[in-house]
Amino acid sequence: MSPLVPGKRRSLGRSAAAGVPLAVLVALGVAPAVTAAPSGAGTAEVTGSATLGDIPLDEFSNGLLPGTVENDRGVDLGGIGSDLYPAGRKGEFWTVTDRGPNGQIKVDGTKRRTFPVPGFDPAIVKIRVTGDKVVVLDAIPLTTRSGKPVTGLSNQESRDEKPYSYDAKTPLAYNPNGLDTEGIVRAADGSFWLVDEYGPSLVHVAADGRVLARHVPKGLGLRGADYRVVESLPSVLLHRKVNRGFEGLAQLPGGDLVLAVQSPLSLPDEDAGEASRTTRLLRFSPKRQAVTAEYAYRFDPVDVVDPGEDDPSELKISSIVAVGGDRLLVEERTDKAARLQEVRLTRGANILGGRWDDADTSPSLEQLTDPAASGVPVLGKRLVVDLDKVDGVPDKIEGIALAGRDSLALINDNDFGMTDGTGAFDAEGRLVDSGVETKVTTVRLPKGAL
Predict the structure, then answer these.
(1) Do 297 and 309 contact (CB within 8 A), yes or no?
(2) Which domain holds residue 434?
(3) Residue 164 has what pLDDT?
(4) pLDDT above 60 (res 247)
(5) What is the average pLDDT across 13-42?
(6) pLDDT band per the 50, 70, 90 thresholds, residue 1
(7) Cα–Cα dist 208/211, whole Å
(8) Whole-model pTM?
(9) pLDDT for residue 274
(10) CA torsion angle 246 251 252 257 (round to 10)
(11) Which H or E element spans position 25?
(12) Which residues face 194 on adjacent strands?
């Protein structure tokens, strides 16, 4: 696909706008789960900001797979801020959309999940940052084995939110092929790995966008997908919170992948998951096609991450980045604030296959108020930067990539300009745009921060 330039619409009317002794932790090979001050704290700064122009969604989608989008309801290309991965040349990155424009509308007191453009197909998008502009260089639609769009629609009636039309009045069909893609990395052979919220799942995608395999939790029982489905992930992941599956994905130097569950699992129930501050990271070997390690990750208190928030269920991991060896940057965030923590994956921290993977364990890992005091080898972490204290960083950062020595590129998810509620569309069914733009922001960290 040749480079896209911002398109223009006519008459759309949209706006411009720690309890275990240190000696025990050392013996386990685990650092204490505390947050240290970042090196050179307070000196991180924004050094550049670039914005994606308006590209009509029907123009974008039908240019990839003709006839997929009949009516885009005035929505522009967005949502590419789900993740960011270096594409080789300076200023160029691979990104991925999520499942497409979606929102929520209450009907008779119950929230319904809307899909205003149900024909939208998630895509891998290659971009270049040029001055203050983000330019689309290429785009690859995600397709099934037979070349059809996977779509972003919900998979299973027993497990996922029921999909509805833009006004929440008309039910839509479930699609077992549907993917809510979030994280992206590119393998040495040119193929891609993505993570998905629905399964949750790890998806292997050929260079041309065909889904080669979708790795899901054991016992998921996904039927009818037009690609290979492999039940290779721990069954405990079946307890992921709705719309909070895998969101972060990193590729270690040797090729292994690390996946982050966005929020604590709902174990033993939703209330426990909403109150918990403990989520999980998994290590997956593409060579062995198997999970080889699992780690407990402990969020900071929500009012530490975001001083304006008191609900722990707002805590999420949206991005993880490999920074050399077995080290990762982990983004803890709410929709308004984000902090980057450095963790090191050690053998002693591996909890895979133990009691914490048994859904009948009581109390569950998620219920423990002090997991370390209960003998859980929680990953130690070090605060690298508090993005909430860096002027010029947008809200809802979901993608982070290394952009040079002591430099990061950040991308926000603008949700395709969508908002929730009945006011998201006008009387003609056209989007009332939120005015939030997709931006790539470059941040220079203090020297030696990474």
Answers:
(1) no
(2) 22-444
(3) 98
(4) yes
(5) 39
(6) low
(7) 9
(8) 0.91
(9) 97
(10) 50
(11) helix 22-28
(12) 184, 203
Q: Could you tell me if residue 16 is inside a domain?
A: no
- Lowest-pLDDT choice from 36-50, 111-125, 276-290: 36-50
Tokens of 314: 């707002």
- Biggest CA–CA distance in the chain, Å, is 68
Burial 388-426 (b: 16+ CB within 10 A, else e): bebeebbebbbbbbbbeebebbbbbbbbbbbbeeeebbe
Q: Is the peptide bond before 56 cis (omega within 30 degrees of 0)?
A: no
Residues with Cβ within 8 Å of 288's Cβ and at least 6 positions away in sequence, in order, are none
Confidence of residue 140 (pLDDT cuts 50, 70, 90): very high
Long-range contacts of 354-361 (CB under 8 A, 24+ apart): 356/236, 356/294, 356/296, 357/234, 357/235, 357/236, 357/294, 358/236, 359/235, 359/236, 359/238, 359/239, 359/267, 359/268
**Would 253 be classed as within a structural domain?**
yes
Residue 243 CA, chain-centre distance (Å), reads: 11
Residue 133 tokens read as 């502009």
Closest CA to 415 of 117, 28, 187: 117
**Range 222-247 average pLDDT:** 97
Query: Does any domain span residue 449?
Result: no
The answer to whether the beta carbons of residues 356 and 378 sit under 8 Å apart is no
Average pLDDT, the chain: 92
CATH number (domain holding residue 39): 2.120.10
**Residue 171 DSSP SS3:** strand
Domain count of the fold of the chain: 1
d(CA 229, CA 224): 10
Range 363-388 average pLDDT? 97
Type of residue numbered 82 = S
